[in-house]
Write a structure and sequence with these properties.
single chain; 590 residues; Immunoglobulin-like; 38% strand; flat; transmembrane; BatD; membrane
């Protein structure tokens, strides 16, 4: 009995502790930095009702509105959600940094206090706005930023530009579209694919924000001096909170349109130093390895081998020339085949490039492939480096002897030898043929003559059958309507089908296709395409509720796809659903 009593007491203490741990009481401000001619909004929010709310003394501020009280109480999946907020609107009295002290409230017999908040008040701003205005909140809470990895790179040094869209925690984004895209003049550029947009937490100008990386681009400057990166501009539909509540106490949101731009960025590109620059330098910048290799070191005359000149590592691999081989003149050499195996990420280009020469010796002897040098600018040490390949001896074991062959082993730079052509210049061309002689023939009274004569008479029954089938098909009004609807669906969805597999491009094309279909079928303007009006137009066209619901679901998926991960299977399902829905609507609409 006594044991049960202790257990009951322990359970009561644990319950009280858990309940206490779940209670929150915090202060939230609309901004932490404002001009003296602007207003500040502060919300004291709790997740459980309390008594004896005591706001702080708003020293250095004038209360111009409030306290406004809002309560939200709802049940979701059997769980109760409660929120109560006291809101004040403040006007600063002077310039400086001030602290809004703690607010106090009594909840279930316990005293809870908010954390003090520091506010910086600056001199008057040019365009003071009402802190409760939707457009002003959107302009203050949405920011597009271009983050550049390095503002003073060397010529041909990789830099990255990452475009981030910052959104404050209390604000939402329902849609956006690009108004202008940067062209990156005077840069070699490559975009890095972003498979899906991921919302992350970060800090913007000292305040907590959520952000999404919209675009990543790698740039290699091709000129020295000041180069401009053109801005990326977006038109964004922003969801901002209002002071109004729904019947369940939830805060209502208001839409506002906001145009944001990352702004121009200026990059000051430094020239590569002239001091110590090798004569054979062709513009390679980075960290590289260099080698020359051959597929064979011994072979017979008229056989072939390949010599590969290869550079690997990280740097501007696609933007410089490989050094050329210097070969004895008695070796038959073909134009090199250039190959690139280069991948680009935020660190720049990485991989290897090569030139492969096909070499055919004509005479017996030993032939040197002299060593060659490759020079590059090393960004780590900010100096030039040169790498020399090893000399390679090609031993031709069997074949005719040339008077010049004894001189081929001489070092590079000696007198060039006479070029001796291969007597069999077509050794690698297939000369065996299977020729068939032709004799003149007469067309008159031949099989072709009689076929051409009788063909029009044989085609008459086929024309009659085809004409009857066409008349029957034209009379099938319902069938023609179905075929026309299917063809229309394929027409509008063709661009979306091409983009299957690329989430962002696919859903942009799919949404555009749906809007174009509405324009063509219902004669709707883009400005009228709200969810309510679309449903109203479809109802007036006597379209079934099932088709309307499917159409609205696809539009919703297009919006959600920008913020949620989507698989290839889901994209294919949305495409099939869109095609069948457009076809169904076109059959039903009147």
């Amino acid at each position: 009995m006594k044991l049960n009593k202790y257990i009951a007491v322990i359970l009561m203490l644990l319950t009280a502790t858990v309940a206490s741990a779940q209670i929150t009481f915090e202060a939230k401000v609309s901004k932490k930095r404002l001009g003296i001619n602007e207003r500040l909004r502060i919300d004291f929010e709790m997740n459980k009702d309390g008594d004896n709310f005591n706001p702080p003394d708003f020293n250095n501020f004038t209360v111009v509105g409030g306290p406004n009280q809002a309560v939200s109480n709802s049940w979701i999946n059997g769980k109760r959600s409660y929120s109560k907020t006291y809101s004040y609107f403040l006007s600063p009295k002077r310039v400086g940094t001030f602290t809004i002290n703690q607010a106090v409230i009594d909840i279930d017999g316990e005293v809870y206090k908010t954390t003090p908040v520091a506010i910086t008040v600056t001199s008057a701003v040019e365009s003071p706005k009402d802190g409760n205005n939707a457009d002003y909140i959107a302009s203050e809470n949405i920011h597009l930023v271009a983050e550049v990895s390095k503002e003073k790179p060397y010529l041909n040094e990789a830099i990255t530009v990452v475009y981030k869209l910052y959104v404050s925690p209390d604000t939402g984004v329902s849609n956006w579209r690009e108004i202008s895209s940067p062209k990156f003049s005077d840069f070699w550029s490559q975009n890095i694919d972003i498979r899906q947009l991921t919302v992350q937490n970060g800090v913007y100008k000292g305040e907590n924000y959520r952000y999404v990386v919209l675009r990543k681009t790698v740039l290699y400057p091709q000129k020295t001096g000041e180069l401009e990166i053109e801005p990326l501009s977006l038109d964004i539909t922003v969801e901002v909170p209002t002071n109004r509540r729904d019947i369940f106490g939830g805060r209502l949101m208001q839409q506002a349109h906001r145009t944001v731009s990352a702004g121009k960025r200026t990059i000051n590109v430094k020239a590569l130093p002239e001091q110590g620059k090798p004569a054979d330098f062709t513009g390679a910048v980075g960290d590289f390895n260099f080698k020359v290799s051959t597929t064979k070191s011994a072979l017979n005359a008229t056989e072939s081998l390949q010599a590969k000149v290869e550079v690997s590592g990280s740097g501007n691999l696609k933007l410089f020339q490989l050094p050329k081989l210097n070969l004895p003149s008695s070796l038959e050499v073909y134009e090199p085949e250039h190959a690139e195996n280069v991948r680009t990420n935020l660190n720049g280009m990485q991989g290897e490039i090569s030139d492969t020469y096909t070499i055919v010796p004509q005479f017996k002897g030993k032939y040197p492939i002299p060593n060659i040098a490759f020079s590059y600018f090393d960004l780590k040490t900010e100096s030039y480096k040169s790498i020399n390949s090893n000399e390679i001896i090609i031993d031709v074991l069997q074949g005719p002897t040339s008077q010049a062959s004894n001189q081929d082993i001489t070092a590079a730079g000696s007198d060039k030898q006479r070029v001796v052509l291969n007597s069999n210049q077509f050794a690698f061309i297939k000369t065996d043929t299977d020729l068939v002689s032709t004799k003149p023939s007469h067309f008159f009274k031949s099989a072709g003559f009689w076929a051409a004569l009788l063909m029009p008479f044989l085609a008459i029954p086929l024309v009659i059958v085809f004409k009857k089938k066409k008349e029957k098909r034209d009379a099938d009004v319902f069938g023609n309507k179905i075929r026309k609807a299917d063809k229309l669906a394929k027409k509008y969805l063709s661009e979306a089908k091409k983009a299957l597999g690329t989430k962002e491009a696919f859903y942009v094309a799919l949404e555009k296709a749906l809007h174009n279909y509405l324009k063509a079928t219902l004669h709707m303007e883009t400005s009228e395409m709200s969810k309510v009006k679309i449903q109203d137009y479809l109802h007036k066209g006597q379209v079934s509720q099932e088709a309307i619901s499917n159409f609205m679901l696809i539009l919703k998926n297009c919006e959600l796809a920008r913020y949620t991960p989507i698989t290839q299977v889901e994209m294919e399902q949305d495409y099939e659903r869109a095609a069948s829905t457009i076809s169904q609507i076109d059959k039903e609409i009147k």
